[in-house]
Amino acid sequence: MRKKSFIAAIIVALCISLVPMFALPSRAVQAEESTNKNFMIYYRAWRDVEMKGVNTSLPDENWISMSDIPYGINIVNVFSYVPPGQEELAKPFFDKLKAEYEPELHARGVKLIRGFDYSKLLAIPYAGDFPTEQEFDSYAKALLDELMIPWGLDGLDIDMETHPTADEVKISDGVVKALSKYIGPKANNGTLFLYDTNAQNMNPFKNVSDSFDLLAYQQYGSGPSRTEMAANAYAPYLPKSQFLPGLTFPEEQDRNRWYDTRLPYEDSNIYQVAKHVRENDLAGMFLYAFDRDGKTYNEPDINSVSPSNLLWTKTAILEVNGYSVDTAKALAKHHLQRIKYNRNLTSEQVTEVESAIDKATNLYEANVAILGANFETALNPSYDPILEQKLTSIYLTSAFSALDEANAILSKVKTNSADIEALKNNKEALENLIGGKKYSESEVNQAVEELLNSIAAVPKPVTVSYQDTDGQKLAEDVQLTGKFGGSYEAPQKDIPNYTLQEVKGLERGTFTEIGQSVTYVYAKSAPKPAPVVDDNDPVVEEVKAEPAPPVVKNTEDTAKLPQTGDKAASEWPVVVGALAVFASLIVLRRKGL
User: Fold this and answer.
1) 29: in domain
2) Among residues 156, 330, 449, 585, which is most buried (max CB within 10 A)?
3) Residue 552 predicted with pLDDT over 80
């Protein structure tokens, strides 16, 4: 072999050895995008499951809780109008807000703020013709104690939808400035202070604009042209990076008609405003009445309360943050793979959903494949793409493998022993865990370990025994173990003075959930008969064999050479071999090797 050929062979071998390294499956579906835009929702507290009969004339049960708020939302405006006399009915919500909702959402990095009407700023008590600095400060503290501090909230939002007089503006300016010492950018303590309006009246805002983190602009029923116009109008007082446009869903029994979710998706205000926000680097966006996501102004929606899949909200979060369609597809497929077990989806159903995902041309269609066009048609109405992105970092291959093995076993077992029941329970526990809303890596690892232990406990051993015809043990038993459905072969033994007579049980078979036995039965071998000597037989004298002559080896240093003329038989192979070598050398030289 030439030197170049030898080197090439080494390179090929190294490349082949690297193939398994690149063939390893990816640990997780990793999205390139990240959520960095503000996304706020107005949470209508009177529609929380803990509020019953507050601010409503409809008999329908509330369905939503603050735990249902999608990931990717970083600001929640607790919008909580409570009519006079209904405070006790509202109390369960506020108790849960403090005890459960606030800690849960804070753990996710969500800021909770409280909205209140602008008119509340004007309700400051004062003794003279105009409030003093002390009176402004005392009132600001009173507002914080009333609206924010008792529940551990993170800020306030002023809802401005009126046209105050110049005198009223002076008072509201004083209260806002007093509040800004404790919340918002001037306080610099992690709290938020928002101004929320549906108009371009600068008077109540321009003198105190530096007190606010964001301006939330209600442009319900309008597209990006209004967004651009309003952002430019407020630009002298607030940079566009702090401008937060917002849209709405149809409120129940509302006479307004905004149609921000008109289909097709690319024609909707939600898509177009989200796209405008992303491309023009605005602060983000917000949605009002998000619990009404997907509802229409038609019956029965307009006069009823019913669950939502929150499809538009979840899609808008992806859109405003620039998620690609391919990423949305990957996240949807990841979700499908983990929920297919506890939803008992057939391979045909999985293929059908995957096909719908592959056909998606926008974020809305990719999400619809899992969320459905509405709550009733959803494969899983709680699917949350941003949460799914977080879950892709948790390795599930071992969980899928364990579940597939457990299903294969359960499809073949014929009994229902305690071990089979344990297998069913642990399989269901793992299915529900990875098919649920969220889970941790440690939870998955523990559930997988418990299922694998249950799988290992199902196949029972095969006991091989060795007995004589009376049932007496002739050798120690052998226990064969293996995986369910795996093959076994019972070993046979050679036992001195015994002959195999019978085999009870299957010498070859598979391990099942039922213990099996194989018994080799041996019979005592009959003794060999002694030779019979007849006295009448002639005596045969014993003939001793003569020993063979010893082989004499030549011990001299040099073997004796044949004499001239002798014909040694070993000469011909030597001659032939020499000729062959010589001929080979000639051939190689001619070829230039």
Assistant:
1) no
2) 156
3) no
